[in-house]
Structure formats: structure tokens, C-alpha cells
Amino acid sequence: MTDIDPTTPLGVIVTEHPALAGDLERLGLDYCCGGRRSLGDACAEQGLDVNSVVDDLSAGARHAPPEDWASMGPAQLVDHIEATHHAHLHAELPRIEALAAKVDSVHGDRHPELAFIRATFDELALELEPHLAREEQILFPMIRELAGAPDDLPAPSFHCGSLSNPIRVMLVDHDRAGELLDQLRGLTSGYVTPDDGCASYTALYEALAAIEADTHLHVHKENNVLFPAVLELDTRRREVAG
After folding, report:
1. Last residue of a domain, one of 66, 98, 114
2. Residue 1 falls within a domain, yes or no?
3. Of 66, 92, 111, which marks where a domain is finished?
4. From CA 172, how far away is CA 159, in angstroms rounded?
5. DSSP of the chain, one letter per residue?
6. What percent of the chain has pLDDT over 90?
7. Which of 22, 201, 204, 217 is deepest in the core (most CB within 10 A)?
8. 113 and 165 housed in the same domain
9. What average pLDDT does the chain have?
10. CA dihedral 64, 56, 183, 101 (to 10 degrees)
11. Are residues 200 and 84 in the same domain?
């Protein structure tokens, strides 16, 4: 038996069965920013047969091993996110920017969409780089401080008041990144390399697809796992202090 059914939110599916993230990606089901939608509603929006989707996901869930991050506390989870997803973006963003410029310079005459792909990715990088800095330098240290504070002492006080304030900013950033990733998927026709594309062209599209998948999982971990846990902890500590 499995707990996946049409009423299960997409975010819950990926939290409980992380290996199914790729299946949802291939089906076009947004489990990160759209993680609160039920599987049934998301399938209806995409014109998918929900019963077939449930059967396929259930079969995958039976063989999918759990991952450690789903049961991590807030402090451990921010360490994991930085070491995994932030490190990946810090390495890949400049590499892909250079690769996109190279491919555009060689193939741009025959594929004018490459100029738009390059500009859209540059905008994505400009969104993500300060976002990562705000998390690493401001939000994540506050989360570690909150999670590490002794229960018998007053909750830490922050310049922003409740952590709901910086989290709200992060959620807006996530939505914008999701929009830009959607644009890249459309501009690249689902990351399908043209017949006349060279090895660098293929490498670019593969890198863009990998960034999309990694960022979706990254955002899911924050939107649907980390942030709710932090807000619950923040509220509980404030109630105790009050």
C-alpha cells in the first residue's frame, strides 16, 4: 500500500518519496513553488490521467529509498542546502553563462532564440546570486541561532522581528526563479538540442536541464520543508517567551 493518492499535495509526495521528483518533473507537475496543490488538481491542470499517474508514482514509491534531508531539523537542513544546492549553483552559474555565450556566438545566426536563452539565463543568475547571499549571510545564520537556542532561555531577537519577514522575501525570489526556469524550458523546446547543434550546444542544454531539476528540488526543500518548520519553531518560541 502507499499513501499517494489524488489528494496528496505534490510537496508532500517529494518530501516522503524524494526519488519521485524526477517523475513529477517529466510530467510537468510543479512540486516546489506549487507544492501545496494536490496531485489530482495538478494532473487536471496538465490534462493527465490522474489514475495512471497515481499508479506509476505508487509503483516508484515502493522501491524508492528515503533520503536523510526529509527528516533533518532546521539547522541541519540549512547546512545540507548550502553544501548541496548552493555549492552547485555557485559552481554552475558562471560555467553556464560562459557556455551560453560561446554557443550563441557560434550558432546565433541560425538560432536567434539563443540570444533570448542567454539573456534569460543571465537574468536568472542575477536573481539567484544575491538570493544565495541573503540566505547564507542573513537568513540561515538566524535559523541556526533560533534552532540552537536553549528551550529554557528567551528566544533570540532578530532585527527583522519574526523570521516570517525574511522568509516572505525568499518566497518571492523563488517564484521569480521559477518563472525564469519556465521561460528557459519554453525557449529550448524542453532542452531538445537542434539537429545541427554541436557538442557544446548539447552540453548547454543538458546543463540548463540539470539546473532546472536541482533548483526545483532546492526550492522544494526550502518552501515545503525548511520554512514551515522554522515558522513553527519561531512561533512556538515566541509563545513561550510571551
Report:
1. 66
2. no
3. 66
4. 20
5. --S--TTSBHHHHHHH-GGGHHHHHHHT---STTTTSBHHHHHHHHT--HHHHHHHHHHHHHHPPP-GGGG--HHHHHHHHIIIIIHHHHHHHHHHHHHHHHHHHHHTTT-THHHHHHHHHHHHHHHHHHHHHHIIIIIHHHHHHHHHS-TTSPPP--TTSSTHHHHHHHHHHHHHHHHHHHHHHHHTTTTPPPTT--HHHHHHHHHHHHHHHHHHHHHHIIIIIIHHHHHHHHHHHHHHH-
6. 65
7. 204
8. yes
9. 90
10. 50
11. yes
Does one domain contain both 75 and 161? yes
The boundaries of the domain holding residue 87 are 69-241
Identify the band that residue 1 occupies on the pLDDT scale cut at 50, 70 and 90: very low
Residues 142 and 47 in one domain: no
- Tell me the pLDDT tens digit for each residue of 145-177: 989 887 766 667 777 778 889 999 999 999 999
Same domain assignment for residues 97 and 121 = yes
The model's pLDDT over 18-40, given as tens digits with 9 standing for 90+, comes to 888 888 888 888 888 888 899 99
